[in-house]
Amino acid sequence: MAGKKVDLSVDFCGVKFQNPFLLSSSPVSNSAEMVAKAFEAGWSGVAFKTLNSDRVRIVHPSPRMNPYHYGSKRLVGLQNVEQISDRSLKDNLLDFLYLKENYPDKIIISSIMGFSNEEWAYLAKASEDNGADMLELNFSCPHMTIEGSGHKVGQANHLIEKFTETVKKAVSIPVLAKMTPNITDMTEPALYAKQGGADGIAAINTVRGLSQVGLDDWTVRPKVAGIGAISGTSGPAVKPIGLRFIADLAKCERLGLPLSGQGGIETWIDALEYILLGSSTIQVTTGIIHYGYRIVEDMIEGLSDYMVERDIERVVDLVGKALPTLQDTDKFDLESQGVASYDLDRCVGCGQCLTVCNDSAGQALEWDPLLRRPTLIEDKCLSCMVCSFVCPVSGLISYKQQPSDWQRRETAVMGEQLEAELKLAAFK
Amino acid sequence: MYDPENFQRMAKGFSLDQAVAESERCLLCHDAPCSKACPADTDPGTFIRKLRLKNVTGAIRTIKENNILGGACGVLCPADRLCEKECCATEISRPVEIAKIQRFLVEHSWERNIKVLEASESNGKKVAVVGSGPAGLSCAAELAKQGCQATIFEARPEAGGVIRYGVPSYRYDVDFLEHELQEIKELGVEFRCNAPLREAGQVEELLENGYDAVFLATGLWAASRLHPEVSNVDGLMTSVEYLASLRDEQFEALRNKIKGSTIAVIGGGSVAIDCAEAAVKLGAEDVYLVYRRSFVQMPAEEVERIEALETGVHFLLLNQPVDFVINHQQKIEGLRLVRTRLEKAKGTGRRIPKAIAGSEWVLDADIVVEAIGNQAESGSPSWYPNVDVDQNGLIQADAATLTTSVEGIFAGGDIVRGPALVVDAVNDGKVAAMAIIEYLSKKEA
Fold this sequence. Notes:
The complex is a heterodimer of chains A (428) and B (445). Chain A is of the alpha/beta class. Helices cover 29% and strands 20% of the residues of chain A. Chain A contains twelve helices and 18 strands. In chain A, the strands form five sheets. Chain A has an eight-stranded parallel barrel, surrounded by eight helices. In chain A, β5 and β6 form a beta hairpin. The radius of gyration of chain A is 25 Å and the shape is globular. The N and C termini of chain A lie far apart (66 Å). Chain B has 17 helices and 16 strands. Chain B has 445 residues and is of the alpha/beta class. Chain B is globular, with a radius of gyration of 23 Å. Helix content of chain B is 35%, strand content 16%. A five-stranded parallel sheet of chain B has the order 3-2-1-4-16, covered by helices on one side. The chains are: A alpha/beta (428), B alpha/beta (445). At the A-B interface, α11 of A face α2 of B.
């Protein structure tokens, strides 16, 4: 593959990024000292930790996060109750200037959150005046309880439009609206943001959740001086939710705005999935909290190798490429049926397929207790493929298309002898 | 060099994190093959699943209800050729370390004071258990769980038999044993130590002295000897004497003797390996393991052989001990050896070592340890004159019920099987307990 060059750079809302990988607005983008390290590692830009206008002093709860572990696998999810930046506006803006001076090719997106038109405009202007290349309007911080702030804005469409409009009037740099997933349909508020003049949409912010309940103290986590709260949950556990919202936004023809996708991204594969569903840039926090800034090296290398292998020159050529296959369930061709297919040469004989087929599927496997091998009764196979999900040998069980005249056996009825006792009249 | 802590204590086992991570490699097999590979019916398929699903107390219960010495087995079992050999994860990467998970769960129960066993209401039956090794302990615990009053008679000062007096501390330490013994005591088992039953017929008299049944599990405490007539030689020891000394008040004296000396251990089994490795750890200058066959033919487990090599034991293979070199002060000076070569195997048998004529030589040694096998003590049949024994003094017991030729007397463990694994003895104890319960209920009916 040596010699071949791919272009990872992207034009996003008229701003050029060296690659699609950005830090999201969060603890990992809290200061220039941190962001400089991220830039050195290869991140092309940062959505800086949401600025505070100094109107109220911000104090983060202690402790401010709690992990969601799965067995010995750490941090499949993360819950946090962190607030916007607890630094003064001046300190943050000095950090902007430092970053622009030392990393002129990197992009600073200033995340802001105000409580009034005036405050939004003030923060927007201050950002622009001190080197911000873009703005990200935080309509989605899940820890705000005051109406008209954070995710409460994200749930109040007219405020989204109003604040976006205010900001757009105050500055000339591109403006992203960052949306909350704590809502049924994200396209609606996104359209209001567009109406207000937003140049792009960033999604998703964290999902309101509860990661843990203490069994000794019957107290939810994180436990802040004896109490907890429903708060922002992130990490791999929320990736399916993030992908869903990005796809919804990308499919919305009326919206038609560039997207910055985020939610549970750790690897180039996660990032690419977001890109294939319509994101031009992607943003990361929890992956960095888990592994550090260094993960961008693997994102860049992984995505580059993929593109070389597929002979794709520009990342832009991948954006939204999976969207045509995303349809409503009523579009499924139900005539098309298949079964699981077993490559038993590689079977290790654990029999997990048997357990799941018996207990959650079609009872379509027979088991040879001496050889410790399954045999599929094809016409009982539901093609649910759960057997392949638990099989420890990748690729041993695959999906096999059946001919169009193939028939699946009806599910066994245990009560056939009890027909006389059946109380049932046909539905009219 | 000798390090008291490392010599007296086993290496640390798994932590909770390690055990959980290891349990995640388990494939949670249908009809788990590991669970069918344990001679004592230990069920790793179930206890690992329970650990995986955070049912930790349940996992401990699964182990302990089946095997009161689950900890000892977790430490001492050659699991790589039992449960772990059957592990389906082997084909993915390597077997799940079942024994280490088992040991962890047992230790975890002690650390967190998790009790999973309860004494049951007394059924008024009294059973005497002779010998407090793995078979005796297992039987007594099972009987106690079923409501019998079990009393263990132990000749030595402390309970445990071979797992106290027959293995070095770094393999299985006293603290660990005491924990397992404590659990057995909590079930209501009575221990009578320093209580040998070595008078003629004394074992059988138990049936006339208030006991409804007897379980004989006295083990094999006589050592096989190269020249049984040679005795009272300074520096000549049997493995039985040697290993027991490592565990009692003789320890410091033996250690002083070994330190800086040259030791020759005769034998190729696990016991010989223990003797040799212990000598290295106690600061011997040179330790030779003398074995007449080759490395791969040694009966010791492969891991033990490799560990001994790595510890610094010199393997002197294909050398047959012929005689001891003893000076006029009755002190050992060396071992006379003759080199061997392996004859072609006849049929499927092992290749036979044949002495090479004229190849005799003397290995200088300050101490010679004979570790060529354990056998029944010569007088043991007289303790139970009506119990049938074979020509080697091994008790003849029915394989399925462990009943002997005397009604009410059952027997198991090494005194029936000959040298075997701890886990085999544990199973004998359970089998005998069940047979005793059945015998007692029939007798009543």
